[in-house]
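Appendix C: a fully annotated inverse folding record. The material below is reproduced so that readers can follow the format used throughout the book. The structure is listed first as tokens, followed by the designed sequence.
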């Protein structure tokens, strides 16, 4: 089992920045692909970014890659998401996920999920 706990969400004005963290415990963190997804009210869960076990491969949603950065620190069992130039449409619950998957953008490929952290961007 892997337990994931997100932190860092909150309220920010449009144009601002926010950094999210996801702390993992349990089985070997470094072996997993880690990802961030988000879900806005009334919408399906949406892929944000993913990083393979050694961050040798990172993938972003096309519409977010200029503003969001995923990174991971395996020694600290933590994955991060830095979000810049935030927009009101970025408002959502952000989820951290871990899994062994080759389809990085597909939620079903991830076995473990955090509880989510709310990000609200005001206009």
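Designed amino acids, in order:
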């Amino acid at each position: 089992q892997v337990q994931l706990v997100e932190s860092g969400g909150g309220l920010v004005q449009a144009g601002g920045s926010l950094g999210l963290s996801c702390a993992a415990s349990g089985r070997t963190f470094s072996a997993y692909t880690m990802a961030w997804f988000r879900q806005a009210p009334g919408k399906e869960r949406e892929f944000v970014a993913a990083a393979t076990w050694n961050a040798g491969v990172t993938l972003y949603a096309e519409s977010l890659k200029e503003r969001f950065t995923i990174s991971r620190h395996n020694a600290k069992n933590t994955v991060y998401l830095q979000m810049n130039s935030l927009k009101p449409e970025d408002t959502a619950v952000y989820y951290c996920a871990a899994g062994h998957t080759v389809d990085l953008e597909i939620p079903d490929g991830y076995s473990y999920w955090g509880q989510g952290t709310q990000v609200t961007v005001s206009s």
